């Protein structure tokens, strides 16, 4: 399915996105603050990732979108919801290619995907985490309406270092304008 926002078209990933994924996610500065993007980003890795996303989507475990610009179709990045086994909660994650940073795109996409998950899909809660050394992602979570819920010291190993994590979450009632968390 597709989601349109003011400037973006969020659409399913396509195998033809692989070269742009390899180019943009292949930037060390994009990989460095994610849990899972490898570096270097080898030939074939994007195709493998797209196919694994398709399998998880078919199994009802993942909702994922390519972030593209409406005006010219440019591929900017990706955003997804990993559903918990109970299918009532999901983890939000995203990345945007470096040439497109600081133009509000991640925030615009995150707001739309939160709405999709919490309102259209009926999830009870969406949560997310970012490395403490990546405050830009914290801003995205805050601007999208998520609450800072906690901090985990040295919780995730990335490239041989233990990273501190900031935890965010939002429940459906709060997202819809209530106050219950
Ligand atoms: C994190 C990321 C998704 C942000 O994407 P983006 O499209 O640039 O985000 P937005 O433009 O919507 O918002 C960025 C915000 O961070 C702020 N910001 C940028 N660099 C910052 C820094 N070093 N310190 C504090 N805030 C910073 C921007 O000013 C902006 O906030 P503002 O609107 O209040 O001014 C992007 O940098 C990225 O993909 N990084 C690599 C992958 C990654 O970290 N993914 C998230 C993993 S949790």
Structural commentary:
It is a single chain. The chain has 181 residues and is α+β, with helices and mostly antiparallel strands. It has a single domain (3-175), classed as Aminopeptidase (3-Layer(aba) Sandwich), CATH 3.40.630. Helix content is 30%, strand content 34%. It contains six helices and eight strands; from the N terminus they run ββαααβββαβαββα. Strands 1-2-3-4-5-6-8-7 form an eight-stranded mixed beta sheet, with helices on both faces. Helix 1 crosses helix 3 (45-58) and helix 4 (105-120) crosses helix 5 (135-143). The mean pLDDT is 97. It binds coenzyme A. The site of coenzyme A has 20 residues, from strand 5, helix 4 and helix 5.
What is this entry, summarized?
By secondary structure, the protein is α+β, with helices and mostly antiparallel strands.
Keywords:
single chain; alpha+beta; Aminopeptidase; 30% helix; binds coenzyme A
Topology record:
Elements: E1 3-4, E2 8-11, H1 18-25, H2 28-31, H3 45-58, E3 62-69, E4 75-83, E5 89-96, H4 105-120, E6 125-131, H5 135-143, E7 147-158, E8 161-171, H6 172-175
Parallel strand pairs: 5-6
Antiparallel strand pairs: 1-2, 2-3, 3-4, 4-5, 6-8, 7-8
Helix pairs in contact: 1-3, 4-5
The structure holds coenzyme A.
Residues 30, 33-34, 94-96, 101-107, 130, 134-137, 139-140 line the site of coenzyme A.
């Amino acid at each position: 399915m597709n989601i349109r926002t003011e400037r973006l078209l969020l659409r399913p990933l396509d195998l033809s996105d692989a070269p742009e994924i390899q180019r943009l996610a292949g930037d060390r500065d994009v990989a460095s603050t994610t849990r899972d993007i490898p570096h270097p980003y080898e030939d074939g890795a994007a195709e493998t990732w797209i196919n694994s996303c398709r399998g998880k989507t078919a199994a009802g475990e993942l909702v994922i979108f390519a972030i593209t610009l409406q005006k010219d179709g440019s591929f900017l990045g990706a955003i997804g919801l990993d559903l918990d086994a109970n299918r009532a909660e999901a983890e939000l994650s995203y990345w945007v290619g470096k040439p497109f940073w600081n133009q509000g795109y991640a925030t615009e996409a995150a707001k739309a995907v939160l709405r999709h998950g919490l309102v259209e899909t009926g999830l009870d809660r969406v949560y997310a985490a970012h490395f403490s050394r990546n405050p830009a992602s914290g801003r995205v979570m805050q601007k999208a309406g998520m609450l800072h819920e906690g901090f985990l010291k040295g919780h995730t190993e990335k490239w041989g270092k233990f990273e501190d994590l900031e935890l965010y979450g939002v429940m459906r009632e709060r997202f819809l304008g209530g106050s219950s968390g």
